[in-house]
Design brief:
433 residues; alpha+beta; 9 strands; EC 1.11.1.-
């Protein structure tokens, strides 16, 4: 029997639970408990899989930190660049439809920005929401927008195209599929929940309407937060620790390397609208896992130049120990081979060239040749790709031992403008100036 103190919302919650017949908590009460869940979520994460299973089996469980963590859309920089790696990701490129130009592109980016702000806050994607994420919180969702070289041709803005968007050079390891490369517009979606990520993906696709058409889409994943006893660098599908020595926001030169400055020579002239932005190089890198897995452990470690167990250099120490590039063994040979991937890609071996790597793994089943179609959706960020990705890849292309076990199958380069302030949309400084 309902008491006089019981509110209408309380009755709705009780009725919804009764109608579901499975003890489901309502979305209003679920989201309302997110703040209180922050303290308990840490304990859940530290307890491991058993605690999480018990929580998900409970008839009425508050969001833990995995679901309640939100990332703001508005700000000086776009989300999804320095955001910690998420468990699920979608990369998708669009081409503007025939007849669509600057006006239509501006309207689309305005719609997308408004949509991203809503779904990243854990709210529905406007009218006609699919309901895929109704029971979930934000789950660290990020939506990031970029512009390809051809975008400027389609919008009559070639005079405003930055030199940093010049085409990447060809590399000997490239086996690029043009249909899965480039694009007028690029969207990166990441979240710690697969349904939340898919919900945002479908919302972006639907919101494109008749203005833009999907050119290609790639889906990826990473290790889920809390899957390890303590936080650690993720592994790729070769089993190697991947991401060691990534630039850190605490580094004194981090902003200079990763973001276009708001002042100074790099922000002047036609590319001033890119202040606070970054450039993303996107590569679909197929791993030839059948060949790789035939190598013995010591062979794999010599190819990489690091121990597989913990990511430490072959010269000793821990994952974060600097490479002792000049160290030799009793036989007089370099401990880290001359063609080891870690040696060739090291910033100290490339004049300090650095990029922020933020990849996803992918697995798309078995290819027509009967081999596994899996690898890395490589995404790296830098203030200038001609000083970041290009010199490092050129050196890798000339003698990286890993090249025999990978194949670059798709590529893209995108200008990712700075973040949108409240009431603005991404790219507004370019399209309305």
């Amino acid at each position: 029997m309902t008491t006089q103190k019981e509110t209408r919302n309380d009755r709705n919650d009780r009725n919804e639970t009764a109608e579901n017949g499975q003890g489901r908590i309502s979305r209003r009460r679920l989201l309302g408990t997110a703040g209180a869940a922050g303290a308990t979520g840490l304990a859940l994460g530290a307890a491991g899989g058993t605690a999480v299973h018990a929580a998900t089996a409970s008839p009425a469980t508050a969001l833990n930190t995995l679901g309640s963590t939100g990332v703001p859309f508005h700000g000086e920089r776009q989300p999804g660049i320095t955001t910690p790696l998420q468990a699920r990701g979608h990369l998708i490129a669009f081409d503007l439809a025939p007849g669509a130009g600057r006006k239509e592109a501006a309207a689309l980016l305005r719609r997308w920005s408004r949509l991203a702000a809503e779904v990243m806050a854990g709210r529905p994607a406007g009218d006609g929401d699919t309901g895929v994420a109704l029971d979930a919180g934000p789950s660290s969702l990020t939506v990031t927008f970029g512009l390809g070289r051809t975008f400027f041709d389609r919008t009559d803005l070639t005079a405003r195209r930055p030199a940093a968007l010049d085409p990447l050079p060809a590399f000997s390891s490239d086996r690029l599929d043009p249909k899965r490369s480039d694009g007028d517009l690029w969207v990166q979606i990441g979240a710690d929940d697969g349904l939340v990520a898919f919900h945002a993906l479908r919302a972006v696709q639907r919101s494109a309407g008749d203005t833009a058409r999907v050119r290609w889409q790639m889906n990826g994943f990473n290790r889920s937060p809390g899957a390890t006893r303590s936080p650690m660098t993720s592994r790729n599908l070769m089993g190697q620790v991947d991401g060691t020595n990534n630039p850190k926001p605490s580094d004194p030169d981090f902003d200079r390397r990763i973001f276009v400055p708001a002042e100074g020579e790099a922000a002047q002239g036609d590319a001033a609208w890119m202040a606070g932005g970054s450039y993303a190089v996107v590569r679909r890198i197929r791993m030839l896992l059948d060949d790789w897995e035939k190598l013995p452990l010591d062979g794999q470690e010599e190819v990489i130049g690091r121990r597989k167990s913990d990511g430490a250099p072959l010269t000793g120490g821990s994952e974060t120990t600097p490479l002792a590039l000049d160290k030799t063994g009793p036989d007089g040979k370099l401990v880290i081979p001359a063609n080891a991937h870690a040696r060739i890609s090291a910033p100290e071996a490339n004049g300090g060239a650095a990029m922020l790597r933020r990849p996803f793994s992918f697995h798309d089943g078995i290819g027509p040749d009967g081999t596994v179609d899996a690898g890395l959706l490589f995404v790296c960020w830098q203030a200038d790709p001609l000083r970041g990705f290009v010199p490092v890849q050129r050196k890798l292309d000339r003698g990286d031992a890993l090249s025999a076990f990978i194949r670059h199958e798709a590529s893209g380069l995108f200008a990712v403008p700075g973040g949108a302030r409240e009431g603005e949309y991404v790219g507004q400084r370019l399209l309305e100036s």
